[in-house]
Amino acid sequence: MAAVTDEGSAVAGVGSLRVRTAPASARPGDEPLTLGPDSGHRLEPAGPGRALLLEAGGGQTSQPARTPVLLGALRRPRASGPRLVEVVVDGWRFEVEVEPESRAALRERGSRDRRVGTHGGAAELRAIIPGRVVAVSVAPGDPVSAGQQLLVVEAMKMQNEVRAPIAGVVERLAVAEGQTIELGDILAVIGQDQ
Amino acid sequence: MTRRRGPGGRASLRKDAPPGPPFRRVLVANRGEIAVRIIRACRELGVESVAVYSDADAGAAHVRLADVAVRLGPAPAAESYLRGDAIVHAALATGAEAVHPGYGFLAERATFARAVEDAGLVFIGPSSGAIAALGDKLAARRLALAAGVPVVPGTLDPVAVERPDAVEPILQEADGIGFPILVKAAAGGGGRGMRRVARREDLPAALAAGAAESLAAFGDGSVYLEREVRPARHVEVQLLGDDAGTIVALGERDCSIQRRHQKLVEESPAPGLTEAERLELHELAVRVARAAGLRNAATAEFLVDEARKPWFLEVNARLQVEHGVTELITGLDLVAEQLRIAAGAPLSPAVLAAAARAGRPERHAIEVRLSAEDPARDFAPAPGRIGRWTMPAGPGVRVDSAVEAGERVPPDYDPLIAKVLVEAADRGAAIDRLRRALDEVAVGGIQTTLPFHRFVARHQGFAAGDLSIDWVAEQWHGEADRQRVLRSALVAAGLASRDGVVEALDPPAGAPAAAPGPGRGAETDRPPGWLRGGRETAVDRWPR
């Protein structure tokens, strides 16, 4: 398993790569990409942090499509996890995870196995914008209906209601009034009605 | 009203005295790009500037550029930039003679303007009386109507929401106005307290909801009814007035491209208007301003319907975000003019000359508001730490900003981070220039509205001047535009990793972690980890 433990060679060299939007950037509908060793695509450097992406078959003629991209490195959350790369194309910013296809497959099998043991149906609510909790309308143990307001989060002059995605019971309330929250923080867990 | 005049005040502006600075020292009661904009004007006029700041802005550009800086309090606006008492105190303590409120925050709070006046300081803007009269949207509607200016059909008094027996008369009045109808807050702004009602039976509930929201937001639950003018363009007129009561219009701006009542793109002149239509609009605006006793800078907003008929909406009694568009086509410095007017000077010859030319504009200017927002998620705020920051330059390009690489965009305030303005001989050339300028923009670390602006600059309907306040809802499909480039982004990230470029990309040791958990990446500290010396690494390693 040298490819997994040896960070330097974990992704460099030959072999297919699994590339996907990282959780911070991911949206429903984002498809991961498997990049083979002979994809026919090429990066042409264009100054610090800049490159031109030449995509074979991307253009309308036989000429490859040429797309300016910005590239940056991000510190990965776990040293053993996938590489985290920042890419900006046409103003769209993506945090992208890159890892060898073989390791991605291994990890996916592992996480599928783990999921079997968890209780089904609980909905975890995470912050989709950083801000401040200005109101908490429920307490742990409260029954809630789908669409019921749980919290109000203020961010950049706007008040955003956080609503229950499913009917159930407030299993956990992870924030309090006045608390500052960051993108991705757990706000509440709603357990499904039995 | 007492007005303290500094050594460079009214006396020095007499014809026999050499023109000195309008004030010795001015406090700028704002933050971000507008605070920097005002401080720049002060510096050029030889006026010392005093910045105020919250803890979130201790190292911000406006603090660095000002001559003096005073801390107001913690990050939340209510504990800092909205503390009128602390700001007046800071002005007195630092020996400032005048206060410029910028836009937003306290700019249109009559009580703040009055507190500044009562402290013996000059408020750089309309008088507190005029702000109060125009801040009440219903009072402004009555005032415009009395001045013979067409207002959007609707009610002129607050509708009684709380009395059940009043419902039937309200419904009858609404029938007379016609559906769809808008419920609006008398104290309103920014779309808060506003409800669109398409069906008669939904009106009572909308009135109650609008009143409740308005009460929560403004401390005043008064609402009124207005017919929905659709389709419509948003066209506004820049006004300047002096103490002697001279009021002029400095051309109009089309700000139709907006969402949730926040403007995204502004331009001047408004495309497609004839000279006669332009001049009529200017005349209507001046008439409202005169009726309100307006002085200094303000903007009268209109909806222009399909038949190109203007309907008065409201007056914003302050400098606006998009004032730079007017500056580019008139050659004026509106902030400098504001300072001179506030010091008691009459409208300058340059202002009068620009006003005389306003019917026949010879240049075209466009502004786009670059904000820390995600245009694929309905422009939701996306604060965070800026990585790369490259702004455009070159002929006909102006950038008003207050941030730089490595700086954090705090979640506490408006997400506007830069205004990119272009100016050219005509609209077509201005759009070409905008496209070019936006190609030069490179921002990392945070998501911005750049994809949306690139889309606008390439849109045929926009190029044809086919504008409407529903433009964004009808034309912009953010997630589809994002998906269009997602594959390229993934391929680029994969190639950069595989070809070993990622070693050069790795952030320096000891840099703070980027993404400690799912979803946190955009918000946490971000090293300036852009590829250094990437070319050498890449040239060595990549197959050609």
**Mean pLDDT of chain A, nearest integer?**
80
Strand content of chain A: 35-45%
Shape annotation of chain B: globular
What does the overall shape of chain A look like? Answer: elongated
The strand line-up of the biggest sheet of chain A is 2-1-7-6-5-4-3
Flag low-confidence runs of chain B.
Answer: 1-16, 508-544
What is the element string of chain A, with H for helices and E for strands? HEEEEEEEHEEEEEEEE
Helix percentage of chain B: 25-40%
Name the quaternary structure.
heterodimer
User: Most extensive interface: pair and counts?
Assistant: A-B, 75 and 83 residues
- Kindly name the structural category of chain A: mainly beta
Helicity level of chain A: 10-25%
Describe the structure.
- Chain A has 194 residues and is mainly beta.
- Helices cover 11% and strands 43% of the residues of chain A.
- Chain A has helices at 2-5, 101-117, and strands spanning 17-21, 33-35, 42-45, 50-55, 65-74, 83-89, 92-100, 123-126, 131-136, 143-144, 149-155, 158-163, 168-173, 180-181, 186-192.
- In chain A, a hairpin with a 2-residue loop joins strand 11 (149-155) and strand 12.
- Chain A is elongated and about 60 Å long.
- Chain B is of the alpha+beta class and 544 residues long.
- Chain B is built from 19 helices and 22 strands.
- In chain B, the strands form 6 sheets. An 8-stranded antiparallel β-sheet of chain B has the order 13-12-9-10-11-14-21-19. A 5-stranded parallel β-sheet of chain B has the order 3-2-1-4-5. Chain B has a 3-stranded antiparallel β-sheet with strand order 7-6-8.
- In chain B, strand 10 (247-259) and strand 11 (262-268) form a beta hairpin.
- In chain B, helix 4 runs antiparallel to helix 5 (128-135) and helix 13 runs antiparallel to helix 14.
- Residues 1-16 and 508-544 of chain B have low confidence and may be disordered.
- Classes of the chains: A mainly beta (194), B alpha+beta (544).
